[in-house]
Structure formats: C-alpha cells, structure tokens
Amino acid sequence: MNKYLEDLVKLSKYDIAISMFEPKIENEKAKLSTFVEVAESIKSQINDTYAQIDDVKSKRTKNNIHLAELKTKLEDISRKNNEVSNEKELKALQLEEEIAKEQVSFANEEIIRLDEIAVAKEEELKELQGKLTEEEESIKEIQISVDNAIEEINQERNNVSQERGQLLEKFDKKILTFYEKIRRWAKDTAVVPVKDQACYGCFMKINDKTYSEVIKSEEIINCPHCGRILYKEEETEEA
User: Which of 139, 169, 199 is the last residue of a domain?
Assistant: First the structure.
C-alpha cells in the first residue's frame, strides 16, 4: 500500500476512535443520571407529601377553631334558654342548638378523617424517605464506578491522541490538508474501505478501472461518486 495512503488510513482510524470516546463518556454519565432522576422524582414526591401533611394539619386546626366557636355558641344558647320569654324564642334557640350540634358532629368526623389521612401520609413519607436513602446509596456506588470508567476512557483517549500526534509529526502537509478538506463534510468517513466493489461511504458501486486502482493501492484514489478516499482492506483485516 502507498505510504501516504497507509498513513491516511491510520489517521482516519485514530480520528474515528477519538470521536467515539465522547459518546462512551456520555453513556457512562447516562448510567448515573438514571439514578439521579429517580432520586429527584422521590424528592419531589417527598416535598408533595410534606405539603399534603401541612394542608391536613391546617384543615385540622381550622376544624378545632370551629369546634371551639361552636362550643361557645352552644354555651351561649344554653344561657339564653334560661332567659326565653315565649315559645317562639324557645323554638328558635332549639333549632339553632340542633344545627350547632350537627356542625359539632360533622367537625369531629372531619377531624377523625383528617387524622387518618395524616397517619397514612406520615407512613407514605417514611417509605419515600427510605427509598431515597437507598437510591442515594446506589448513586454513591454508581458515581465511583462511573468516575473510574470515565478516567479509563480519558486515559485511553490520551493514548490515542498521543499516537495520532506522533503520526502527524511525520505526515505530509499537502496530504493532511487534502484529508482535512474531505473530513470537513465527510466527518469520520473521509477514508473508507471498498467492499464488494462499493464505496463504504456512499455505498455506490465503483467502476472496474477505479476498483483496480484501489486494489493496487499505489496511489490515493477518491470515490468517483462522493469524493471520499478509498482503500482496500487487507485480507486478514477484512476477515
């Protein structure tokens, strides 16, 4: 294989490898973000539960205040009963007393209902806090694993970048400029193999003459359809 072409193939593979490191890092971060999202969801549920408990307590307080008011009202009615001067006033007080007692009964029932809700919400809160603790422990473990994995990926990336830099030190500048021009639009497919007599960049079949030149590998050949640099993989590599 032509030396320049061989260098181009190597450079292309280094660039492809370097491009793949960032998705690998993002993939590792995604593992952690899944647990973080679950933890944040649990925190949101905990905050909602606290708000619901506060609301229940507020309603219970209002009912207690109402009960106190009703108690005062019943005491006032009882006092007035001793002062009535006719049957009409007596009946009016009795009706008022009956309504007040119904309101007392309703308020007491409402307090019992609110207490039951409060107990259920407190249990729900404990369960959520337990889940959050478990999730945060998992996050700590995953964080260590992810940090180690990212460190290894960065180390590998540094090694590849170093090897790429060493290759560029002896690279022909004109060939490099030619490669970079194609890479601007072709990205990591600037240099592609030919398989089954087709360019593996645009997947178009190339003619026999061009294919023969690619097989010889004596010169740098561009795909007649898309302009990518073509090469024929070695049989062992292809296998």
Answer: 169
Question: Residue 66 and residue 108: Cα distance in Å, rounded?
Answer: 10
Q: Which amino acid is at 149?
A: A
185 shares a domain with 107: no
My answer on whether 79 and 134 are in the same domain is: yes
- pLDDT tens profile 90-139: 888 889 999 999 999 999 999 999 999 999 999 999 999 999 999 999 99
The CA distance from 39 to 80, in Å, is: 61
Specify the pTM: 0.66
Same domain, 104 and 54: yes
Distance CA 88, CA 92 (A): 6
How many independent structural domains does the chain possess? 2
Q: Are residues 14 and 100 in the same domain?
A: yes
The three-state secondary structure class of 225 is: coil
Residue 24 included in any domain = yes
Q: What's the CATH number where 43 sits? A: 1.10.287.1490
Q: 197-204: which pairs have CB atoms within 8 A and are 24 or more residues apart?
A: 199/223, 199/225, 199/226, 199/228, 199/230, 201/226, 201/228, 202/226, 202/228
What is the signed CA dihedral for 117, 131, 37, 23, rounded to 10 degrees? -170
Length of the chain (residues): 239
